[in-house]
Hints:
By secondary structure, the protein is α+β, with helices and mostly antiparallel strands. It has one domain: 2-Layer Sandwich (Ribosomal Protein S5, domain 2). About 35% of the residues lie in helices and about 20% in strands. It is built from four helices and five strands, in the order ββββααβαα. The chain has helices at about 40-45, 45-60, 75-95, 100-105; strands at about 10-15, 20-30, 35, 40, 65-75.
Amino acid sequence: MAAAKAKTYLAHAVGRRKCSVARVYLADGAGKILVNKRELKDYFGKATNRYVVHQPLNLLKINDKFDIKVNVKGGGTTGQAGAIRLGISRALLKVDPSLRPELKTAGFLTRDSRKVERKKAGLRGARARFQFSKR
């Protein structure tokens, strides 16, 4: 029996958002997106998260040009979707650097550095205090 031929990837990039880290691999194909060895629709239940992942591809109108394999870990679903979007954008840049102006103006190349602020001692949350009672 012949050994299965390994798929050659055109580009590899890393995207981060909140506590999520996504490793994105781009290959020639028909637009199939696998996230942690699962279909995109199976992995992300919310349509908004699927939309976020597709944003760079929709902007450039290349939905069916590449197969994308993603390994993502950490954080929640929204953070993971944002990390995947950044990773896809960076990988597309490696394939074709002329796409930079379009991706840059859409804001897909900017790492969103916002993270949840830690809870402080003696408070209810990061800044929220317990309700004050005079009596």
